[in-house]
Structure formats: structure tokens, C-alpha cells
# Entry
Amino acid sequence: MARSSTRPTSRDVAHAAGVSQAAVSLVLGDKWRGRVSEATAERVRQAARALDYRPNLAARNLRLGRTRTVLLVVPALTTEFFAGVYTGAARVAAQHGFGVVLYPSPEGIGPARDPFASAQAALDGVLASSMAADALTAIRGDRLPLVMLDSDPTASPGAATVNLDIADGIRQVADHLLGLGHRRILHLAADVPSWTFEARARELTTRLAATPGTELSTARAPISIDGARTAAEAALTTPGPCPTAIVCDDDKLAAGAYKAARRLGLRVPDDISVTGLDDLALATALDPELTTVHLDAELFGERGMHALLAVLEGNEPTSGDIPVQLVLRGSTAPPRTHQG
Amino acid sequence: MARSSTRPTSRDVAHAAGVSQAAVSLVLGDKWRGRVSEATAERVRQAARALDYRPNLAARNLRLGRTRTVLLVVPALTTEFFAGVYTGAARVAAQHGFGVVLYPSPEGIGPARDPFASAQAALDGVLASSMAADALTAIRGDRLPLVMLDSDPTASPGAATVNLDIADGIRQVADHLLGLGHRRILHLAADVPSWTFEARARELTTRLAATPGTELSTARAPISIDGARTAAEAALTTPGPCPTAIVCDDDKLAAGAYKAARRLGLRVPDDISVTGLDDLALATALDPELTTVHLDAELFGERGMHALLAVLEGNEPTSGDIPVQLVLRGSTAPPRTHQG
DNA sequence: GAGCGGAAGTTATACGTAACACTCGGGGCG
DNA sequence: CGCCCCGAGTGTTACGTATAACTTCCGCTC
# Structure
């Protein structure tokens, strides 16, 4: 009789089924075709079920030298966006029998800045979103397979990269506003040192530069509604002609821009157009609803995880940016005729 | 010379330092006072650093029979609220050398409905938020220590429970609205079978019943802005006197209520007051800003993790609900005098 | 000078699993 | 008739760690 105080092991199952532990391992590991008879296999399965046997993961991981667990590193988990990324990544991982451990980046989690101290689990690989450089180097210290999300492809030579085609999203925004007739545009930029935000600024600048007679100004704000409101209010009250449209790096910043406009007595979109980027729930909660760039966060997470799993199997990850789509809602309109 | 192809083990460190593997384990495990000389200990530390040795977590977990990893089960990770819970829980866990694996509830993750299949990691305990009953029973199947978040204390006899005092929040909302003079109130309720939502309805009902002359109606909606808008619009256009205030189970529902009011030509708060619950970023993005009940999600996660760690150490978890606070903003005002 | 206790280690073992190497009997085939 | 192969298993080992049990040496006390 097996000791009931502790969890049953494969040896307990073997004893109950009258076979050796090795046979149990073969049957439960589905490696028994041609090695164990169907009758014996069934006896083993019955015994396992009767004892409610669950393999000891730690022992299996030690034996196999891999853990079927990967780490997902994301910036502090404040928005729905990364919740979506996680959901997509975890779904794909689960389909392949992998688990996902989350590490929201350095700020605010643990005393140890090392992701691997925080994630106690033994890991097979890492999926890392754009993040602080120190966490990145800590990760590279280990030799784990790494796939980067939303990062400068040229900056991580060793690692595969999966990106949203945000540059194209910015192009769509710029073309939309230019098409409506806007020429004086304010870029409300995230005050975060990250490749993805720098890329947005770069793309917007070059796109607007291609159309003569445009003026681009920039205001920087932390990614919070009130921070954005303050920055936008300051930018809109500087001397000189007022911009007719605000391009925001992010939907949260756009919400701040709405509040700034409201305080200044400007109406969206009649007096000023506003665009966002992300398409969070926030975007449709605003009045008027926000014209923004829809990012498919779950698809992003799925693609990232597929790439990582490919790397883990020694294959080449498929590349190619994920398309994004401008969603026209009520926050953009032609500018008022300013001199006619 | 150690093989450079594979990660160094404690034996490699021992060899490099000229000691036994046991000595390495003692030194690195900080159990060497009086067992190893300071000079030898330093030699071991040097060797470990030189080889960039990291202990094999799987082996340690197997040896020790515990993993310093716990599972956090949350409803599908769609809101900032559970991001906050995770952040708080992970912070406390990290401070105690624990890691946290996330399992967002059944919908949408994996083919296996079993949380333990998805979370590949071997676990020491579970912190589980209110969730679908099937996931719950799967968890109880294992004999892991369990702490419940935001759940019926009487329903899980074996497990400790950590709750936000949402009933008090609802009381504060009800008293605020009654104090303003509202008597016809619509409850926009989440259409989700969960203890926490049922408790809200119960509390609101009893609180209003204590004041004569009040009328409470209820509309149910899925937790999404558009779902809430539809439900609220239907409720507000039913024949009979229109409610003067809407109590929403959740800020997202409140955003839907705003949209419904706007479509019907009702102004918030002049024509109708609206309250939420959660205090998400959304609450201050709305115009007017939402009067809502502030929940401290991170504190909630911290308390939950503290309770679980206490259970794991064989101590009694501290109990007591976490206080919540009504935040007055611009979405509530006295009703228009309806018959004067 | 015998004995004892403590410092400074070492040796050996177990944790639970997966898989390699082996055994044993029977049947097909040359 | 001898050989080989195949089905159906079993015995054994190793993964890397933590720790209990043991050894050795030395200084002290009685």
C-alpha cells in the first residue's frame, strides 16, 4: 500500500499495476508502441488514474534538461495591450505544451533586478518586449534562446525579432490627416526611452517632410492621462498659431489630449483633431470616439511565441512585420478654414 | 577544464576551487558558518563567479521538494485591475524569494482546461481569484495550499480568503446617492455568475430597502462598453419614470452608461448621475470624470500573497477585508426636482 | 596522556523521472 | 536445425542538488 501522506510517484503506480517503473514511464510518456502490450498499458493507465498520479515536474525537468517553460518580459503591466500580448503568447505556448512565466520589467517588482531571480522557474527561452537596457543585458548574460518583441532589429544581432508594423500605422495616420487638409500638427510623444517610440517620431517626421508647407511640433509626456493633459495644455497655449491636429503615441496620451482641449475650450474634432495608437477599450469610451491605429496584441503575442518555439526547435523563425490598421472614428475632421 | 558546451554545475565549481561539491553547496547556500573556513568560502565564491555558475533550479526543486513558485489564477486578463493584483502579488512573492506563474482563467488560453497542464511549473501553492467553478474544482483536486481572492468566505471552507470590502463600497455609493436625493436608481449589473457581483446586488438591494420610497431596477450586461451601452439604453427607454441615477458594477459598464445617456440626449450628471467601481484609468478619461469606488488592486495582490505565504509556512493568515473608498468626481449630482 | 569537543571539511545518498542496455521466449526463415 | 529478430518487458543509471553522517586534525582540559 502506498503511503497516503505524500504524492504518489511513478513507482507507486508501477507497484499497483504490477509492472516496473520503466514500463509506467513508457506508457504514460506515450512511447510504448511496440514496447508494451495494449493490455499492460491499460492496466498502467488505470492504476495511474486510481492513484491520481501526477508526474513530478521538477524530476522530469531535471531528467530531460528542459522545462517547457519560457519567460515573457514586458514593461510594467499597466495596459490592456500587454495583457493581450500575454494572452496570445500563452495560448500558443499551451498548444505546444509550454508554460509562460511573466516578468514585468524592473520597476516595482522585486529587490532583485535580475529577471531570473524573480522568475524562480528554470527556463527554456525568453520572449522579451522592448524594455530597459539593464534587464536586457541581464538576459543576454544567460545563453537562453531569445526572441525580441517590438525592438530595433539591428540592435540585437543574435536574436530574432517580431515587430508590429507601427511605422505603417504612423504613415496611415499622417496620410489621413494630410488628406483632410491638416498642416500644423502636434506630436504628443511618450517620454519613454524606447526604440518603438523613437521609431514613431522618426516616421512621422519623414512622412510630414514629404509634404511641403507642414509644420510639426513635439511635446513629450509620461504615459498617463494627467501627464499628457498637462503637456498638451502647455503645448497648445504656446504663442504662435495653434496646431489643428494632435498625433498621440498612444491612446492614453490621446485621452489626455482630449482633456487639455476641453479645458482650453477647444472641441474635438471641430476645433482640433486627435489620433491615438493602440485601440484600447479607452478609445471607444471617449467622446467622440477616438480615431486610432488598431494593434492586434494577441496576434502579436502569438507570433512572438511561434517564433520562440521555432528557435527552440532549431528552426528558422518566420519573419515579417504584423500589419496594423487605422480605424476611423469621430476624433478627426478637416481643419476649420483658417484664413478664408 | 570544464566542458564549455554545457552550463557549469556545482561540481565544476568545486573542481575549480579545489573542494568537494558539498562544500560548494554549503557556501552558496549560506549554511557554512562554522563548517567551512572563510578563506575556503571566498575561494568557492570566486570560482562560482568566474564560471558564471547558476544553480540548476530543477535539481534544487527536486531535492528540496518545493519550488518557491506559486500560481495566480485570475479571470481573463482584460482589465488593469488584475494587472495590479498581479503586480502586488509578484512584488511580495519576489521579496520572499518566490516566483509567480499566471493562469488567466479557462476562456481562451489552452486546450487543456486544467490550470496545472498550462502552468508547466511545479507549484507550491495557489492564489485564486473568483472564477469559473470548473477551474476551481480542478484546483481542489490537487492538495496544494490555496488562498482565495474575492470569493465567498463560506463557500471554501478549507481555504483562507482575502477580500476587498466591496460591500462597504456599495454602501458608500448608495448613501452618497440617497444623500443627494436620488430615489429611482438603476443597477447596471455585470452579467457574470460570480460571487462578487451577486454580493454587490445584494448589498445595494438591502441598503436601498432601508430608505422608504426608493425604487431599484436592474439591467444586466456583459462587461464591455458596447454591451453596457445597449443594456443601459434599453433600460432607460422602458416605459415609466426614468431613473435619476445609475449604479454600475464596474467602470467599464459606467462608460457604456455614459454612451447610452449621450445617445438618448441625457447629460451626465445634470439629467442622470452615474457611478462606477474599480477606478481604472478609464474613470478619469471620461467626461465628466467618473464618481467611482477606488479599489487598491496592488494592495489586494500583496495581501493575498502574504496570506498564501503564511499558509505555506504553517502560520495562520491574517484576515480582515481591505477597505475601499468612494471617490467623488463629476458624474454625480442631485436629481432635478421632478415634481416641483 | 587520554579523552573530548569543535573546526573543517568529505563521502554518500536520495529526490522522481526517462531512457539506454539488457533479458527472455517464441516464431519465421534460410 | 540453427539463427536472428521482434515483442514485451526489466534492471540500472544519470540528471544536479542539499544534507545527514562520517572523518580527520588539533587544541585543551583533567
Summary: Residues 66-163+298-319 of chain B form a domain with the Rossmann fold fold (CATH 3.40.50.2300).
